[in-house]
TrEMBL record, chain A:
Domain ATP phosphoribosyltransferase catalytic span(s) in chain numbering: 53-204
Classification via InterPro entries: ATP_PRibTrfase_cat, ATP_PRibTrfase_CS, ATP_PRibTrfase_HisG, ATP_PRibTrfase_HisG_short
PANTHER family linked to this entry: ATP PHOSPHORIBOSYLTRANSFERASE (PTHR21403:SF8), ATP PHOSPHORIBOSYLTRANSFERASE ATP-PRTASE (PTHR21403)
Pathway of action: Amino-acid biosynthesis; L-histidine biosynthesis; L-histidine from 5-phospho-alpha-D-ribose 1-diphosphate: step 1/9
Designated gene of the protein: hisG
Name of the protein in its database record: ATP phosphoribosyltransferase
Enzyme Commission identifier(s): 2.4.2.17
Subunit architecture: Heteromultimer composed of HisG and HisZ subunits.
Alphabetic keyword roster: Amino-acid biosynthesis, ATP-binding, Cytoplasm, Glycosyltransferase, Histidine biosynthesis, Nucleotide-binding, Transferase
Gene Ontology molecular function: ATP phosphoribosyltransferase activity
PROSITE patterns: ATP_P_PHORIBOSYLTR
Function: Catalyzes the condensation of ATP and 5-phosphoribose 1-diphosphate to form N'-(5'-phosphoribosyl)-ATP (PR-ATP). Has a crucial role in the pathway because the rate of histidine biosynthesis seems to be controlled primarily by regulation of HisG enzymatic activity.
From TrEMBL, chain B:
A Pfam family this chain is assigned to: tRNA-synt_His
Superkingdom as given in the UniProt entry: Bacteria
Location, primary (coarse class): cytoplasm
InterPro entries xrefs: aa-tRNA-synth_II, HisRS-like_core, HisRS/HisZ, HisZ
Occurrences of domain Aminoacyl-transfer RNA synthetases class-II family profile (ranges): 1-337
More details: This function is generally fulfilled by the C-terminal part of HisG, which is missing in some bacteria such as this one.
GO molecular function: glycosyltransferase activity
Organism encoding this protein: Allobacillus halotolerans
Entry similarity comment: Belongs to the class-II aminoacyl-tRNA synthetase family. HisZ subfamily.
Keywords: Amino-acid biosynthesis, Cytoplasm, Glycosyltransferase, Histidine biosynthesis, Transferase
Lineage: Bacteria, Bacillati, Bacillota, Bacilli, Bacillales
Location in or out of the cell: Cytoplasm
Name of protein: ATP phosphoribosyltransferase regulatory subunit
Keyword Amino-acid biosynthesis found: yes
Length: 217, 413
């Protein structure tokens, strides 16, 4: 039997995904027991899970190093990976937002500097608005940039807004919503369809079912 | 390493072993294309930028590698094989002989970011184009040739995914969307991104009937005729029905030829290059992450060059194909051993080598005593032939005797 490789982002998304897979009968018992390993076989040996950096999930799947992946829409927008994006899993919800100090007037600035971990999303957003900006690529602690004068504002993902608040920043503009997506390599989808498509359908059914329960509750 | 010795991203050197493997694969494909009646041609490495930008929605102009000519005109390195060939065919088009079957082996240049792929900016494509005839048989022969191309290089697990661009185009044409919005819808369908497609169609406030069919498109795939039946039921106009019927004819003929097992159908496959009009297809190799063959019908392209002609073609991404073959251990160097001529006098050695080379052998001349007993050595001093992997030495009398014996030994190796 062919082994299907699933790439997951280390951390919360992986835990949520493993729970979801468990509910459709794809169990990774080892995942709970050991924490340092990066490769796990499912109990029935049919699936293999690899744990990678969130921003790398799309790369693994696009190149076929993994057949399936769970990635945040935020990372997919940034990477523009050529993959099938089949299911909105509904968890890992967050939104992109432009944030800055309370009195920031971006429209009044000729060419504001925007710092972000997502330079592509940032550039695309302001291009669509027809606003010229200067994008500054950062790798972390983006909230710091407006405070120390590195940038006029930031583009980042916001879940609760807590981090922004603690650093004295506010949301200036809401951008797109993001959530976890089940993605699939296009070649795998076709050449390993017999194994992959039932898996996708099962996940789809499970998501629909749990959404229905939420709606009823 | 010094900057001057580095290579730009997305290009790579090929050393002799890899180059030879590449040539073997290309030769295999070329031979097959010839056997199917395609004649090889060549277009220039660079052409005017205007050739490519005047074709709406075909190529990302940002991805073209540009240069400036003496007179200030912009040139681009060939970013696509099909467009220049169509231009070429149109330039010499003759109504009396509308049909032409052409093949090419060519480098394609694109300004992709090239960080993860050494061949992303300069890659080789082998392909075929068939102008001047549109019928089921021509399309089926193209699909058959694509399948035979995979078989020719030794593959047995692959899939040819066939779509029908007309089905989508006839549907979206009724939606009254701008070209830009149509492309966004197309992108979501090609990603099988149902959640976002749904959201998008809500925003566009499309007609319910059109919307429902669009939402079904990502699901219209599979390996049986059931998909076609479903597509037929969903069709909302005669053009869509015809498109399904055409695909059905293609499918059943392909199946009749014994290729059914390699075929899958996907109405959600439209193809990123907007010039495709009818049957489109992509070839996937099992356990290889990207399509290795891309092709389809592009009847809308020739009219841009003033030629009312139908056309269909496909290209094989040779570098990707080689990577897939290597991963499967399907590529081996077919090297023949080099013959060493050992002579005290170089000139004497050269004369013997020249005769053997004339007969087609690969020969080197040496003045040093050959150390390895794994070599194929002709010792002019002792008039002996030593064969590889044996200590046995054969003697020879004259040149004629030598060439005859070498031929026998060479043939048995």
């Amino acid at each position: 039997m062919e082994v299907i490789k699933i790439a997951l982002a280390k951390g919360r998304l992986a835990e949520k995904s493993v729970d979801l897979f468990e509910s459709i009968g794809v169990v990774f018992s080892q995942f709970h027991e050991e924490s340092r390993k990066l490769i796990f076989k499912s109990d029935h040996q049919q699936f293999e899970m690899i744990l990678v950096k969130a921003t790398d999930v799309a790369t693994y799947v696009e190149n076929g190093a993994a057949d399936i992946g769970v990635a945040g829409k935020d990372t997919l927008l940034e990477s523009e990976a050529d993959v099938y994006e089949v299911i909105d899993l509904g968890f890992g919800k967050c939104r992109f937002a432009v944030a800055g100090k309370e009195d920031t007037d971006l429209n009044g600035m000729i060419k504001p500097r925007i710092a972000s971990k997502y330079p592509k999303v940032t550039t695309d957003y302001f291009e669509q608005k027809g606003k010229q900006i200067e994008t500054i690529k950062l790798n972390g602690s983006v909230e710091l940039a407006p405070l120390v004068g590195l940038s006029d504002a930031i583009v980042d993902i916001v879940e609760t807004g807590g981090t922004l608040k603690e650093n004295g920043l506010v949301v200036l503009e809401d951008m797109v919503q993001s959530s976890a997506r089940l993605i699939c390599n296009k070649a795998s989808f076709k050449t390993k369809g017999e194994s992959i498509q039932p898996f996708i359908e099962n996940v789809q059914d499970m998501i629909k079912q749990s959404e229905g329960e939420k709606a009823n509750a | 390493m010094k900057f001057t010795q580095q290579l730009p991203k997305g290009v790579a050197d090929l050393f002799s072993q890899d180059y030879q493997l590449k040539q073997q694969v290309i030769e295999d494909l070329k031979q097959l294309n010839r056997q199917y009646g395609f004649r090889q041609i060549q277009t220039p490495t660079f052409e005017y930028y205007d050739l490519f930008i005047n074709l709406p929605g075909t190529m990302d102009t940002d991805q073209m590698i540009k240069m400036v000519d003496h007179d200030g005109k912009i040139l681009v390195l060939r970013p696509d094989a099909t467009i220049p060939i169509t231009r070429m065919v149109a330039s010499s088009y003759n109504d009396d002989h509308p049909e032409s079957k052409l093949s090419y082996v060519t480098n394609i240049f694109r300004m992709e970011n090239g960080e993860s792929d050494v061949f992303s900016r300069s890659f080789m494509q082998v392909g075929v184009e068939h102008f001047g005839k549109a019928c089921v048989e021509v399309d089926v022969e193209m699909i058959a040739l694509a399948i035979e191309s995979f078989k020719k290089v030794g593959l047995d697990r692959f899939q040819l995914d066939i779509g029908q661009a007309t089905y989508f185009k006839a549907l979206i044409g009724e939606a009254g969307l701008s070209t830009e919005d149509q492309l966004i819808v197309q992108e979501k369908i090609e990603q099988k991104n149902l959640p976002e497609l749904k959201q998008l169609l809500e925003e566009f406030q499309l007609d319910e009937e059109i919307k429902n069919v669009l939402l079904q498109l990502p699901h219209l795939f599979g390996t049986s005729e059931a998909v076609l039946n479903q597509a037929d039921e969903l069709a909302i106009n005669s053009k869509m029905k015809e498109a399904v019927q055409y695909l059905r004819d293609v499918y059943s003929l392909v199946d009749q030829l014994g290729y059914g097992a390699f075929i899958s159908i996907d109405l959600g496959l439209i193809n990123h290059l907007n010039y495709y009009t009818g049957v489109v297809f992509q070839g996937f190799i099992y356990d290889f992450g990207k399509p290795v063959i891309q092709g389809g019908r592009y009847d809308d392209l020739p009219p841009y060059f003033g030629m009312q002609q139908d056309a269909i073609g496909f290209g094989v991404y040779v570098d990707d194909l080689i990577a897939a073959l290597k991963a499967r251990g399907l590529l081996q160097n077919q090297t023949s051993p080099t013959i060493l001529v050992y002579a005290a006098e170089w000139a004497e050695g050269f004369k013997v080598a020249r005769e053997l080379r004339r007969l087609g052998f690969e020969v080197e001349i040496t003045k040093e005593v050959p150390s390895s007993n794994n070599a194929f050595v002709i010792d002019l001093n002792t008039k002996t032939i030593q064969t590889p992997q044996s200590n046995e030495k054969k003697t020879y009398t004259n040149m004629e005797d030598l060439t005859q014996k070498v031929g026998v030994i060479y043939g048995s190796n």
